[in-house]
Amino acid sequence: xxKFLLLSITLAITLQLSAQQDKNEKEAIxxxxxxxxxxxxxxxxTAAINSYNQALYYYLKxxxxxxxxxxxxxxxxxxxxxxxxxxxxxxxxxxADKRWxxxxxxxxxxxxxxxxxxxxxxxxxxxxxxxxxxxxxxxxTVNSPSPDDPIWPKAEIAPKFPGGDIVLQQLVxxxxxPKLNGLSKDDVPSGRVSVSxxxxxxxxxxEIIVDGVNPSYHNAFIEFAKSLPKYRPAKNKGLPIRFxxxxxxxxx
Length: 252
Prior knowledge:
Blueprint: H1 2-41, H2 45-58, H3 62-74, H4 78-90, H5 94-104, E1 106-107, H6 115-120, E2 127-132, E3 137-142, E4 151-152, H7 164-176, E5 192-199, E6 205-211, H8 218-227, E7 235-236, E8 239-240, E9 242-250
Parallel strand pairs: 4-9
Antiparallel strand pairs: 1-2, 2-3, 5-6, 5-9, 7-8
Helix pairs in contact: 1-2, 2-3, 3-4, 4-5
C-alpha cells in the first residue's frame, strides 16, 4: 500500500511538472510570435526586444537569443547583438555561430601576439585565435586540448557561463529539476548537490563528479552538465587553461 501511495505521489508530481513546462513553452511561443510581429511588421524594436525577453523568461531557447540579437543588430547595437549571437552559438545554433564568427570575431595577425601566445600556435591546426571587439578580450581557443596540461584551481580570469548565473539557474529549473521526480529529503540531506568538473581550454566539460545526493540520481546531474553550452575558458597570462570548477545546485 505504501509503495503504491509513493508511486501515485511521484506520478502526480511528474504530471504537474510536465504541465507547468508545457505551459511555460506555450507562453514563450506566444511572446516569441509577438516579438516577430513587432520586429517584422511594425519595425518596433523596443516592443520586439521586450517580447523576446518575456519569451526567454518562460523558456530558454537559442532561437530566441538569435532573434533578439537580430533586433539589436537592426538598432546598430552590435555589442549586445554579439552577446546574444554568442549565447545562441554556445547552445549549438548553427546560424548564430555563423553570425558570431562573421560579425563579432576576427582572426588576429600572429605578429600582434605575445611570445607566449605564439608558442601556443606551434600546431596551427589545433588553434584558432579570435578577438571579440566588444570586450577587447583576446580569446584563444584550442580545438584539441591536451589531457597532459595542468589543471588550475585559480585563474587570473575566471571562466564565464554564457548568459551568466541567471541563465544557468533557468536551465536548472527547465532541464534538470523535471528529471528529479521523487527526490526526497533523505536523498539529498543538505538540500544542495555538488557537481564538480574540469572546464577544458575549449570550454567543454570533462571529469564530471556528483556528490551529496542518492547515487540513483547521479546520471541526471551528469547528463545535465554534459548538455550545458560551452563556457568561456579561464585564462592565465592571456592564455586559456584547464580549470577545476564546482556548482552547488539547490534542489529543494
